[in-house]
Amino acid sequence: MDILVVGGAGYIGSHMVKSLLAADHAVTTFDNLSKGYRDAVVGGKFIEGDLASREQLDRLFETCAFDAVMHFASFIEVGESVRAPARYYRNNFSNTQNLLDAMIEHEVGHFIFSSTAAIFGEPRYTPIDEDHPRQPINPYGKSKYMVEQMLEDYDRAYGLRSVSLRYFNAAGADIDGELGERHVPETHLIPLVLQAASGRREAISVFGADYDTPDGTCVRDYIHVQDLCDAHLLALEHLRASGNSSQFNLGNGQGFSVRQVIDRAREVTGREISMNAERRRDGDPAVLVADAEKARRELGWQPGVSSLDNIIETAWNWERSFFLQ
Ligand code: UFG
Questions:
Q1: Please, are residues 161 and 151 in contact by the beta-carbon 8 Å criterion?
Q2: Is the CB of 76 under 6 A from ligand 1?
Q3: What is the whole-number distance in angstroms between the Cα of residue 188 and the centre of ligand 1?
Q4: Is 205 in the pocket of ligand 1 (CB under 6 A)?
């Protein structure tokens, strides 16, 4: 198939481009390089461009009759979204609407959207299934949920078929060591812990040790980026086969606390990792764990490489080979 990957120069998008090429799809990456890196796009065609420009989008869709679009281009920092909501509604919502409108005009009918566990807000229960109430508590989560709602309406009115994949905590790096996480600034736990292990950072800050969890630190469901890519390939097949729009929660179904992650990282790396106890970070729920049964049942998805050790090993490999060369 001919697949357009929007945001294919970013963390998850770049892994997706590689997976699609390995599965013999033809890939075009469209990215404005505001957060991504040209050298992270390992193959296919690359077009530098911006979703804010409807003109550029029209030109893009004239280059090729794409079978489907995957959309990874969004801002992801919860704290920043609270301070600068306009950036989030503009980029994550309005620009996505530009993309969808261009797709409809050019008769591209299949869309796979990178959604997030942040659409659920403060969990009422865990593990979180697809029926859990969706009450996002920050502009990041709201902007993503607004897109999910727009997709429902666009399906009804224009016949645009979509799959929204709600990632829990995406982590890990390419198994071959070619790609990995390069966020600036980095805010995610695992890469920061590994920076502390490699010496690029003095210590890891632990945000809160007084949560209602077994060791007092927050529990998250870490899912390997490669397993997320596999879910996208299956979502593509689902759209081609049944054509029904749907939403899926993607996680491992198993939670690990911040302290457990640090302990495993000490084992895997064999390095000292200093910790600083700090106060809670605003907006962090105590526990976020996915019930991914629907994805298993309906997509046949089976996370295969998401053990915590494998996540840490692949991310550690990347930290050493990319940043410490
Ligand atoms: N944490 C620390 N110290 C750090 C960084 C993080 O203790 O230096 C803790 C956090 O407080 C949290 C856990 O580690 O308890 C995981 O934090 P991350 O920042 O790695 O990820 P989040 O759980 O905040 O992820 C959330 C949503 C995702 C969303 C992401 C946006 O669950 O859906 O924010 O980046 F995509």
A1: no
A2: yes
A3: 5
A4: yes
Q: Give the Cα separation of 268 and 107 in Å (integer).
A: 49
Output Rg (C-alpha) for the chain, integer angstroms: 19
Domains and CATH numbers, the chain: 2-170+224-250 (3.40.50.720), 189-221+253-323 (3.90.25.10)
DSSP 3-state assignment of 180?
coil
Pocket mutation for ligand 1, best pick of 91, 169, 260 (most atoms within 8 Å of C-beta): 169
Give the integer Cα–Cα distance in Å for 184 and 88.
17
Could you tell me if the CB of 288 is within 6 A of ligand 1? yes
DSSP label at residue 299: I
Dist. CA 32–CA 47, nearest whole Å: 8
Predicted TM-score (pTM) of this structure: 0.97
146 within ligand 1 shell (Cβ under 6 A): no
Residue nearest to atom 5 of ligand 1 (CA): 189
Which single residue is written with the structure tokens 């629907």? 294
Spell out the per-residue pLDDT of the chain, length 325, in tens: 999 999 999 999 999 999 999 999 999 999 999 999 999 999 999 999 999 999 999 999 998 899 999 999 999 999 899 999 999 999 999 999 999 999 999 999 999 999 999 999 999 999 999 999 999 999 999 999 999 999 999 999 999 999 999 999 999 999 999 999 999 999 999 999 999 999 999 999 999 999 999 999 999 999 999 999 999 999 999 999 987 999 999 999 999 999 999 999 999 999 999 999 999 998 889 999 999 999 999 999 999 999 999 999 999 999 999 877 7
Work out which ligand 1 atom sits closest to the CA atom of 280. 11
Token pair recorded at residue 110: 């299949």
The residues annotated as belonging to the active site are 140
Helix, strand, coil shares of the chain as percentages rounded to 5?
Answer: 40, 20, 40
